[in-house]
Amino acid sequence: MARAEIAARTLRTDRWWLPPLTTFVGLLLISIYAAFRTFQGDFYWVDQYHYLTPMYSPCLTEECVPAAAHFGQWFPALPGFLTPPVIIIPFLLGFRITCYYYRKAYYRAAWASPPACAVAEPHSKYTGETKFPLIAQNLHRYFFYAASLLLLINIYDAVLAFGTGVGLGNIILLANVALLGAYTLSCHSCRHIAGGRLKHFSKHPVRYWMWTQISKLNNKHMQLAWASLIFVCLTDLYVALVASGTISDLRFIN
Ligand code: FES
Q1: Looking at the predicted complex, does its ipTM rise above 0.95?
Q2: Most buried among 2, 3, 4, 52, by the most CB within 10 A?
Q3: CA gap 32, 162 in Å, rounded
Q4: What is the distance between the alpha carbons of residues 253 and 159, in angstroms, rounded to a whole number?
Q5: Pocket residues for ligand 1 (CB within 6 Å)?
Q6: CA 212 from chain center: how many Å?
Q7: Ligand 1 centre and the CA of 31: distance in Å?
Q8: CA-nearest residue, atom 2 of ligand 1
Q9: How far is the CA of 187 from the centre of ligand 1 (A)?
Q10: Given the DSSP bridges, would you call strands 51-52 and 45-46 parallel, antiparallel or unpaired?
Q11: What residue ranges are annotated as transmembrane (predicted)?
């Protein structure tokens, strides 16, 4: 449908540009932090308390500290500036990039397509997600499977760390997997896997119950997307600070 013949880019008088700008700055800062930590290649493991940052889990190459490689060192040491997270990051990034919420967020914030409701976009043509490369957004369900597997590994790491006692790091690792779990469960694909393609909910009470519960979480998908993304960075920062000796872990039970 053609846009109404309005000369002005928008008739909105509120600060419609603030949400996309905030999103842009937030995603940029997190991307810079994540890139720095990925390529730092250090301070991802606290040997004393067995804290492993989720950004390096699973650690699968020969340069991983052996104790941090909970699932073995499957790959040889990576060349040049490459570090162990480059093996898992494509899956984590793929999951977030193809997420229904993040798509809305960066289409608005980074591509101005459109920047906000009732604000014209600068692009003259709209092809939606039917052509390459955006058709790849349909891979979201497969990234969901991969991210779920990585989440299980993060849960395993968090539980394993309790073997040395209980400290603030344990609580943070636990809170991190709880938030990541809530975000993953609230995924639209997860909701569809639980209750999609059914003609009669009444004939599938268990799936209907799961769909109902996931739908409640799904209502908070945006909040969970941000909370889990920020918290995973804070978890990583805490592990890095303890691993580098900058701060000591607050211990409750030794
Ligand atoms: Fe956001 Fe699946 S829709 S994670």
Answers
A1: yes
A2: 52
A3: 31
A4: 15
A5: 99-101, 140, 144, 187-189, 221
A6: 23
A7: 18
A8: 187
A9: 4
A10: antiparallel
A11: 16-36, 81-102, 142-162, 168-187, 224-247
